């Protein structure tokens, strides 16, 4: 037993020694706490109860009761989110990402500004839910969509995260969208600009990059990628950040499963339909139909297949 203990102590020392001598620092010690992932997830859960009351968490049938419930949830979200935003702002200043002063007053203003956006977010999400119902013949009712559709959940989280991202809150928006990614398989960056009545059918393996712009009434199927074509670099060989790297999808576009559309200069014109497994790195005019030429199946007879 003593020998095992000694070995564990030596292993611990070797691990701790790596904290100071590896090329990329992957520890955060002796500094102010970072935002808590668990606290951010709690905020999402409570916001979901406010945005879709009666579907998640407690429910009440009276107007007075629902008002008191919303007040209670908002106070809880305010307390948690304000603390996490303060930590995120402090971290941002520490790593010189911006010159914002991390203060309680800034965190309070960001939090209140975000909470004031919830009526507008609910309006957008109501249109997203309606788009899901109208776009999926398998949907039996609105309730089914709100309860169970991963695409609707992912879009809800992205719209929340985008609001915070637009305000300039660091770290927290990405924690939110990566949490949604982890449970739905749908990866939408909080920086993506998404119009009204947006629907992702099935949701799995969808990737939407940071600088993507999506218009109104757009529908995507599973496995769609709206990504970057290349990453321009400066004279030092470092990636130039902040450029438009991802495509623009105009209104009323449908993109079928497995399609890949790349590039910041790529524009998919209004009303276009992009077929399954299409690979696009250039713009198409409004009203276009882009399909992959049918591949020819080759059927091997049993005696050949067995070889």
Question: What would you say this structure looks like, in words?
Answer:
This protein is 44% helix and 10% strand. It is an alpha/beta fold. The chain has two domains: 30-185, Orthogonal Bundle (serine acetyltransferase, domain 1), CATH 1.10.3130; 205-293, UDP N-Acetylglucosamine Acyltransferase, domain 1 (3 Solenoid). The protein has a five-stranded parallel beta sheet. 30% of the residues are buried. The mean pLDDT is 91.
Outline the secondary-structure elements:
Elements (H helix, E strand, L loop, with lengths): L1 H17 L18 H15 L11 H32 L9 H12 L2 H18 L6 H7 L1 H18 L4 H13 L2 E2 L4 E2 L4 E2 L6 E2 L4 E2 L4 E2 L4 E3 L20 E2 L4 E2 L4 E3 L4 E2 L4 E2 L4 E2 L8 E2 L11 H4 L2
Parallel strand pairs: 1-4, 2-5, 3-6, 4-7, 5-8, 6-9, 7-10, 8-11, 9-12, 10-13, 12-14
Helix pairs in contact: 2-3, 2-8, 3-4, 5-7, 7-8
Which descriptors would you attach to this protein?
serine acetyltransferase, domain 1, 44% helix, 307 residues, single chain, alpha/beta, 9 helices, 5-stranded parallel beta sheet, UDP N-Acetylglucosamine Acyltransferase, domain 1, 2 domains
């Amino acid at each position: 037993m003593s020998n095992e203990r000694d070995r564990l102590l030596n292993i611990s020392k070797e691990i701790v020694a790596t904290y100071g001598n590896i090329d990329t620092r992957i520890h955060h010690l002796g500094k102010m706490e970072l935002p808590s992932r668990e606290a951010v997830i709690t905020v999402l859960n409570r916001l979901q109860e406010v945005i879709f009351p009666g579907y998640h968490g407690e429910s009440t049938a009276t107007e007075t009761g629902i008002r008191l419930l919303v007040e209670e949830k908002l106070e809880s979200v305010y307390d948690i989110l304000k603390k996490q935003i303060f930590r995120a702002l402090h971290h941002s200043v520490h790593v010189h990402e911006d010159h914002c002063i991390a203060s309680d007053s800034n965190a309070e203003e960001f939090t209140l500004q975000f909470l004031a956006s919830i009526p507008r977010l609910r309006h957008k999400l109501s249109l997203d839910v309606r788009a899901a119902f109208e776009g999926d013949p398998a949907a039996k009712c609105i309730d089914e969509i709100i309860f169970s559709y991963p695409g609707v959940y992912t879009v809800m989280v992205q719209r929340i995260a985008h609001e915070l991202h637009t305000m300039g809150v660091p770290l927290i928006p990405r924690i939110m969208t990566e949490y949604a990614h982890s449970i739905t398989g749908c990866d939408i960056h909080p920086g993506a600009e998404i119009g009204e009545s947006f629907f992702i059918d099935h949701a799995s393996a969808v990737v939407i990059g940071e600088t993507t712009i999506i218009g109104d009434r757009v529908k995507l199927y599973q496995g769609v990628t709206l990504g970057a074509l290349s990453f321009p670099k400066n004279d030092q060989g470092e990636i130039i950040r902040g450029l438009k790297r991802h495509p623009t999808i105009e209104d009323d576009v449908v993109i079928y499963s497995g399609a890949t559309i790349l590039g910041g200069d790529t524009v998919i014109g209004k009303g276009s339909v992009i077929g399954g497994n299409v690979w696009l790195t250039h713009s198409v005019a409004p009203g276009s139909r882009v399909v992959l030429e049918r591949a020819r199946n080759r059927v091997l007879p049993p005696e050949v297949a067995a070889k």
